Amino acid sequence: MATLLWLQAGACSGNTISLLQAEEPTVIDLLTDFGVELLWHPSLGPELGEAVQAILRDLVSGAKPLDIFVVEGTVVQGPNGTGRMDMFAGRPMTEWITDLTSVASIVVGVGDCAAFGGLPTVPPNPSESTGLQFHRAEKGGYLGKDWVSKAGLPVINIPGCPAHPDWISQIVMAVATGRAGDLTLDEYHRPSTLFTTFTHNGCTRNGFFEYKQSTSEFGQGTRTGCLFYELGCRGPMTHSSCNRILWNRQSSKTRAGHPCLGCTEPQFPFDDLAPGTVFKTQKVSGVIPRDLPSGADHLTYLAAAAAARISAPQWAKEDMFVV
Amino acid sequence: MTVTDSKPIDLEVSPLGRVEGDLDLRVKITDGVVTDAWTEALMFRGFEIILRGKDPQAGLIMTPRICGICGGSHLTKACYALDTAWKTVLPPNAILVRNIAQACETLQSIPRWFYALFAIDLVNKKYAKAKDYDEAMRRFAPFVGESYEPGVVLGAKPVEVYAIFGGQWPHSSFMIPGGVMCAPTLTDITRSIAILDYWRQEWLENRLLGCSIERYRQIQTWEELLEWCDENESQHNSDLAFFIRYSMGIGLDKYGKGYGNYLATGTFFEPSQYATPTIEGRNNALITRSGIYANGVDHEFDHLRVSEDVTHSFFKGTGSLHPWEGVTEPIDPADGRGQGKYTWAKAPRYDVPGQGHVPLEVGPLARQVVAGNAERQVWQSYDPLVRDMLGKIGPSIFLRTFARLHEAAKYYEMTRAWIDQIDLHDRFYIKPVERESGKGFGSTEAARGSLSDWIVLEDGKIANYQVITPTAWNIGPKDGKEANGPMEQAFIGAPVEDMHDPIELGHVARSFDSCIVCTVHAYDGKTGKEMSQFKVNGML
After folding, report:
1. Which among A73, A118, B185, B470 has the fewest CB atoms less than 10 Å away?
2. Is B168–A247 a contact, with Cβ atoms under 8 angstroms apart?
3. Which of B400, B407, B405 is nearest to B255 (CA)?
4. What are the backbone angles phi and psi of residue A186, rounded to the nearest 5°?
5. For position A298, which CATH number holds?
6. Count of alpha carbons within 13 Å of B356, Cβ hemisphere only?
7. What's the CA gap between A86 and A79, in Å, rounded?
8. What is residue B317's three-state secondary structure?
9. Which residue, among B249, B256, B248, has the nearest Cα to B513 in the 3D structure?
10. Hey, of B176, B181, B423, which one would you mutate to test binding to chain A, going by the most A CBs within 10 A of its CB?
11. Alpha helix (H) ranges present in A177-237?
């Protein structure tokens, strides 16, 4: 049995709630059938009452091994570096994170906040928050860039706001069944198996993207076109498997006409939600998207786009997602 | 009793490595009865501060992420706040889809909250000798109870419907000023119906009610409810009838009363009545109504009567301000303690005509009491049952919990009807004019209670943004007049049998379903000694 402790720092609980939607395995099966001994979790129990403090003490002292330490939520360091804006067990949560990360075999940062600091770090970052090993895209964060766990691994980040339930359950299962060594991590410590492809891969609007046909507006306008050109979609630049492993077994943001927000990337929310940036594609020279599909440059993009537009077949200019 | 004169209770005295969650409850117990209570929210992220100066639509991305369980509700009210500020026009389809999404989020929450957070306390060892304890264990034991797993797992079904319209749940931002992002197709509709129907059969009718929704919805009085419980074997064996019988047996109808004063800001709009969303036209257009029920009198809801008091909160000042003028200036809790401040939650208060600024309870009980007001428009939901029960048996842990379960059948019925009203050939969005300035108010009913945003736009950006969550209404602290917050008040009078396992306090706390984890600390009122503490899991 692998022991697992799940704590929430500056969290909205969205990743926990997300995990509840998992079906293969369900969260209950994950905890009862797959060799995970859940020591404590803020929503799911098991109900331990006063025993919680004893467990934390035993973990910190080493009397009980901590195999997997899952952190959800941003590391709140305010005010003035004291950590008193997020108290847990009579001390700043930062102190618990220091103690528990030093005894854990493997540390998993679930969700954008734990991984990169997340929304609370948007300026002016009033809670002085940061991620476990990154502050947005910058390596370091709370634990420092060189930190490794007892098993010799950096923090394994499962970003997303929230992380997809299957991303969490599959990675937890992999770690709990001794396959942590099989995980390759990318530059932001994300498991490559889930975060190499783009949100774009598997998006039902790919045909429209190919011929540079834009969705004109939300609602009925989304019956056709691609959300990348006008509505701020970050699908071609965002590493996620949202369109490979669907959400709630049904859909994804882009399939439902919702531009990808890029929430698995450390820069999320992009442009820090500055006026004029929400649901609007940022452009250079008024026409070319500022952020292009990974690997493309503006000049080649422009040429390819012109050719694509000329060659666009009639269907690409009509509604496809029809009643 | 104020914080400053409660010297026997000193948080720093405890030599134990105390475990606190995001919310601490300090409860003073004298002669086996709670005599005072303090609720302490222990985490601050500062979203209202971050939103200042940002894109007007930033709240659509930011506020759902305040709370993972109520994200869809945050989105709903954030969007209506912008609709009122930008003076948008909404096609009927957009209102229907928003209604459906909001309802589905609540439908997922009802069984998950009941089984995973509330009912697991019903099998506490305190009740080992209670009648039907074995039956309670069989149904509600965590992870293994016959009703526990399906309740938790099937909760995923209603939000599959949310994902069909919104792309994903939690944390979608698919509602935007002027409508919704999606344009559903025929199979989106048929699939949604099939998913909801599965959930109705598997959980709502077969497990919770033991009868058809239609039969259950005929119940109008407490007496009729009791008759329904024993009308036949199937109803008798339902989780709802069992819960009623068992909780009356163990006395959950006897305490956890609170003030008995309620606020609902209402939710769901009648499409024909809210095509041009305004703050003034909001009450009239609601389906699940807004209202205040205080000291037995109904009042119309007016958002201008809401204010937030920070006397005992870790923010600068002691004043009470309307949210449009609201300020959020955090101070170091260490300094705040010296000023009698003890929590990150502000204390929302409502200026009830003739009563002044008072604390009001929000949540399913509040909604259902307001639903019992007979004066209404034809499109507004009327349901006399819970108000009838309030008059006959009074407020309690039992009634608060019953109200939550009662909503499952109602919301299901409404959701199905809204799906049928969607006109796939009509619009889902009307592009709005993005106004540079304006003021907005948007509100909804999250599963756990009223949730509202106040937004002020200037020069094309957010000048002020204030959110009042149901948890703030319920678990907020004492105010400048030292009036308890609603949950603090509900603890008072609660009997505690075993000082070392005060499960009774767990029932009270859980019946409010605060959206953060709380830790209860029980103190001896005479010596100030901490007798016990335990965790109340939150957030489902």
Report:
1. B185
2. yes
3. B400
4. -90, -170
5. 4.10.480.10
6. 5
7. 10
8. coil
9. B256
10. B181
11. 192-195, 206-210
Residue of B nearest to A223 (CA): B183
Interchain pair B185, A321: CB under 8 A? yes
Q: What is the ipTM of this complex?
A: 0.97
Distance from the Cα of residue A105 to its chain's centroid: 22
| Residue B539: per-residue pLDDT | 44
**E strands within B191-275?**
262-264, 267-269
1.10.645.10, 2.40.50.320, 3.30.70.1170, 3.90.226.10: CATH of B23-304+357-536: 1.10.645.10
For residue A292 the two structure tokens come to 């292009």
A128: closest CA among B66, B49, B60, B462?
Answer: B49
Domain boundaries, chain B: 23-304+357-536
Cβ pair B270, B86 in contact under 8 A: no
Give me the residues of B, 428-467, that contact A with CB < 8 A: 428-431, 460-461
Strands B320-321 and A75-76: unpaired
B83 contacts: CB under 8 Å, gap ≥ 6:
B90, B177, B178, B277, B432, B440, B442
Three-state secondary structure call for residue A84: coil
Q: What is the pLDDT of residues A34-90, one digit of tens each?
A: 888 988 888 776 554 566 778 888 999 999 999 999 999 999 999 999 999 998 877
Residues B101, B76: contact at Cβ < 8 Å? yes
Interface check for A94 against chain B (CB to CB < 8 A): the answer is no
Give residue-wise pLDDT tens across range A100-156. 999 999 999 999 999 999 999 999 999 999 999 999 999 999 999 999 999 999 999
> What beta strand segments (E) does chain A contain?
2-8, 36-40, 66-72, 75-76, 87-88, 91-92, 104-110, 129-130, 134-135, 138-139, 156-158, 283-284, 288-289
Cα–Cα–Cα angle for A156, A161, A167, rounded to 5 degrees: 50
Judge: A256–B182 Cβ closer than 8 Å, yes or no. Answer: yes
